[in-house]
Amino acid sequence: MSIWKTKPLSVLLGESSETEDGLKRTLSSGSLVALGVGAIIGAGLFSLTGIAAADHAGPAVTLSFILAAVGCAFAGLCYAEFASMIPVAGSAYTYSYATMGEFMAWIIGWDLVLEYALGAATVGVSWSRYLLELLSKYDIHLPTQLICSPWEHLKLSDGTVIEGGIINLPAVLIVSMLSLLLIRGSKESASINNFLVILKVAVVIVFIVLGWSYINPENYVPYIPENTGEFGHFGWSGIAAGAGTVFFAFIGFDAVSTAAQEAKNPQKGMPIGILGSLVVCTILYVLFAYVMTGLVPYYEFAGDAKPAATAFAKTGYDFLQTGLIVAILAGYTSVMLVMLMGQSRVFYTMSKDGLLPKFFSDIHPRFRTPWKTNVFFLFFVSLFAGFVPVSDLGHMVSIGTLLAFVLVCIGVMVMRVKMPDAPRAFKTPFVPYVPIAGVLVCVGLMYSLPNESWARLVIWMALGVIIYFVYGKKNSKLNNPDK
């Protein structure tokens, strides 16, 4: 019973076929690109951009996005090869199972909880902030104890400062509603996501076009603020730290790979969905960040969870600000939808392999979705969205994402050695140089994150190792075929 035993490629390919009691193939290439854009454009653009600019990079946050995108490009090319080669739900978990063995697969699957579940919670908190901004325009004010977590410092648009509440109720409610929607089915969820993606991309373009003429060049001086003497606080180290912060925003293409088993033509659609969404969003990110820091001095974004609304208020289009906020809310909704879907598919696959209880792979008889997993994460994600500050969540998600990318890059190199002749609809170019570059960039960005992020990652992984040896190893179908 080896913890390093790998899952044969033939078995994985057999699992990818559609069956009456399995997941249903309903997603086109266009839907997969929209799925990626839906996950990418969200908190990273509308919320974390301000945090990265104010705390780390200043106006050079645009360079932080470019640096993060370079790391994503290397990892994205590796993801595209795996996704076209192994079109099975589970993303990096499945790829690790095929290349580095069961224990590493468990580690990455457990890590993906940080990436997807806490990613949805992060966006839920920011969604709540923009909802409060919208309601305040109509003089509607929710009870202060129900709009932020007990350990959060919140500054409202009217200048009111709240030093901790009881629960972030709006965040809990939106997570719950989307989890229930996902139970209805992937096709219905994808249709709603496509509409939301079109809406928020249009708003991003409107923000860039209208805001460009109101840019104050003085806000770019200095473009790279001088380092304060502390690593990560401005200067070039600040650009790297900013990249680590906003890296959370790029996990959308990773989420595309979790839907491989529901793609109509995964060999063609997965590379298009992964790389297409990454290219589109990187261009929009850089332009958006450039306009935003040109409208408002970067230091004014400190502690601001709704910097896009703050920046747009500096233009002469005040009548459009409400529309902007509505579109941002729609955009955030699509991000949470994709994150929650991705997480449920990872746990579904881990459960099918016996590493988690059968509960997580039970398929709804009518909707053919892993509905019990959706219900589980409804409560799990709501707990974090309701009680944990957004900045802590964002850093935890970033370090989890980077670790996943590192293992996928390593996995491509391992697979090229172990199975050089296996069919590949898409091949990562310049192997091993591209995967090695992906590992180096991602590890560098992990290094730039706060020590607290590393501590939480170690604690989370230690908990995962305990669960694996107490339950997963004993119930693994690969190591215990008679069970």
The order of strands across the largest sheet is 1-2
- Helix fraction, binned, reads 55-70%
Order of helices and strands: HHHHHHHEEHHHHHHHHHHH
Q: Please, how many helices?
A: 18
Helix and strand composition category: mainly alpha
Content of β-strand: under 5%
Task: Let me know the largest β-sheet.
Answer: 2 strands, antiparallel
Work out the radius of gyration: 21 Å
Mean pLDDT: 83
Q: How many E-type strands?
A: 2
Question: Regions with pLDDT < 50 over 5+ consecutive residues?
Answer: none
Shape verdict: globular
How far the N terminus sits from the C terminus, by CA atoms, comes to 13 Å
Give a verbal description of the structure.
β1 (153-155) and β2 form a beta hairpin. 66% of the residues lie in helices and 1% in strands. The model has no long low-confidence stretch (mean pLDDT 83). The protein has 483 residues and is mainly alpha-helical. α4 (48-57) packs antiparallel against α10, α7 runs antiparallel to α14 and α11 packs antiparallel against α12. The longest helix is centred in the N-terminal third of the chain and has 35 residues, at 102-136. It starts with 8 loop residues before the first helix and ends in an 8-residue tail after the last helix. A two-stranded antiparallel sheet has the order 1-2.
Keywords:
mainly alpha, 1% strand, 66% helix, 18 helices, 2 strands, globular, two-stranded antiparallel sheet
Briefly characterize the structure.
This protein is an all-alpha fold and 483 residues long.
